[in-house]
Amino acid sequence: MQAWRVHRNGEPSEVMTLEETERPVPGDGQVRVDVLAANINFPDALLCRGQYQVRPPLPFTPGVEICGRTEDGRRVLATPALPHGGFAEVVVVDEAALLPAPEALDDAQAAAMHIGYQTAWFGLHRRARIQPGETLLVHAAAGGTGSAAVQLGKAAGATVIGVVGGPEKAKAAAALGCDLVIDRRTEDIVAVVKEFTGGRGADVVYDPVGGDAYAKSVKCIAFEGRVVVVGFASGHIPAPALNHALVKNYSVLGLHWGLYNTKDPQAVRDCHSELTRLADEGVVTPLVSDRVPMAGAAAAVQRVADGTSTGRVVVLPSGAAR
Prior knowledge:
- This protein has helices spanning 12-15, 42-49, 107-111, 115-127, 144-155, 167-176, 189-196, 212-217, 242-248, 259-263, 265-280, 297-306, and strands spanning 2-6, 16-20, 30-39, 65-70, 75-78, 90-94, 99-100, 135-139, 159-164, 180-183, 202-207, 221-229, 251-254, 288-293, 312-316.
- The strands form 3 sheets. Strands 3, 4, 5, 6, 7, 14 and 15 form a 7-stranded mixed β-sheet that branches. Strands 10-9-8-11-12-13 form a 6-stranded parallel β-sheet, sandwiched between helices. Strands 1-2 form a two-stranded antiparallel sheet.
- It is 32% helix and 25% strand.
- The model has no long low-confidence stretch (mean pLDDT 94).
- It is built from 12 helices and 15 strands.
- By secondary structure, it is of the alpha/beta class.
């Protein structure tokens, strides 16, 4: 079979190579799955760079989430067991972690419905306890998990402010349903948020960026607001000033969604049921901006790493536009 392999750490476009490899063999409690679509996530780039919290042995195949079909015909969502990741024609996955793919979504959309949407749902509901009528500020609102947070924020009855970089991403964020879109390249985030909220600020901030995005967020956070720290796509990890949190009465909440798979797997399944319901009702639909054939995977991962992509970019091993 074909699979993308990483033999040394570095930039995805430089270290990912497409090779003929042996089909992976399932271990105890695992099943083999044919990959229908593999969604690209920022962690795939971090895996290539050797900067992710999980460091599989070299060589490995990146790709942390897929939509696939089991040997008994089930269409499923799965997180492949590294080092045999999803940018391959066949993967092995833990049987217990398989989730049914939402019927309302095609293969590419379904592949993008798992990690990003679960992360956004847990961030907004489990960690921030968002309430109808609150104001939600989403950084990287046209990106992978940001676009999910926008849709789920609207579904929760929040007023959503999306922060993006550039006019094309601004159009995408507006189409997703943002009530206000801020282009961080040309506008003052703090001033615009305060003006839009009548000086109150944002009740919830969803931050997958870190760095300057975090610094500006806490300058326009509301009384008893909550900042959900999801990741550091900027490459800069902020150092929160706890005295500032004290005097402004806001909370900084961390979210590592993967922990729920081991600490509370039932919560993951319950979340998937809720996301499936929202997909079936047409309330949320993953923004898939590009569907690339297997040969284009390395370049596509690099685009996600560089922050030039919009929404989700999905690899289709067969090359079909599914």
